[in-house]
């Protein structure tokens, strides 16, 4: 997945879908084969999910087959439901990219634990704040990297900065 772009963050505020017209589709994940999905599947069933996809893979693993199946299964008007945000994304950037992709397709997103629902204005606002913070952090990292490179060049033997 590509990192979210500036227009992705702005798109999150658009009211799509304004009203749920489709079904709730659940996605659950545990990190190891020894862990049980029961609690997550129960929460998704109680939330009214008509179909649940589940992976037993680390969140660091990009090859989450059931997640990709769930994303493929979803149609405009549907809502992807997860027990908690950490079950879906490997990082805030990954989470924003996935939810932005859903939003562009007219698909909502709900996280039960955080009570976050992008089909509501408040839920879209929270996600917009997440995206803005992620962009800010990326810019700080780039700025710090550039400052570090400049300092290293200045310390290098024979650099123009040292000869001044």
TrEMBL record:
Domain of life assignment: Bacteria
Gene3D superfamilies, sorted: Resolvase, N-terminal catalytic domain
Active site: 31
Resolvase/invertase-type recombinase catalytic domain ranges (all copies): 23-156
CDD domains: SR_ResInv
InterPro entries for this protein: Recombinase_CS, Resolv_N, Resolvase-like_N_sf, SSR_resolvase
UniProt keyword terms in alphabetical order: DNA integration, DNA recombination, DNA-binding
Full protein name: DNA invertase Pin-like site-specific DNA recombinase
């Amino acid at each position: 997945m590509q990192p979210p772009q500036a227009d992705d963050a702005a798109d999150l505020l658009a009211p799509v879908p304004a009203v749920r017209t489709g079904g709730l589709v659940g996605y659950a994940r545990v990190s190891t084969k020894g862990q049980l999905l029961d609690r997550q599947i129960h929460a998704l069933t109680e939330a009214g999910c008509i179909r649940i996809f589940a992976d037993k893979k680390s969140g660091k693993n990009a090859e989450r087959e059931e997640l990709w199946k769930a994303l493929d299964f979803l149609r405009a008007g549907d809502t992807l439901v997860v027990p908690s945000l950490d079950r879906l994304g490997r990082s805030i950037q990954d989470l924003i990219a996935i939810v932005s992709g859903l939003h562009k397709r007219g698909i909502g997103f709900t996280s039960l634990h955080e009570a976050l629902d992008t089909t509501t204005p408040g839920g879209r606002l929270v996600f917009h704040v997440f995206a803005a913070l992620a962009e800010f952090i990326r810019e700080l990292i780039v700025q710090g990297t550039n400052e570090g490179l400049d300092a290293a060049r200045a310390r290098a033997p024979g650099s123009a900065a040292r000869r001044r």
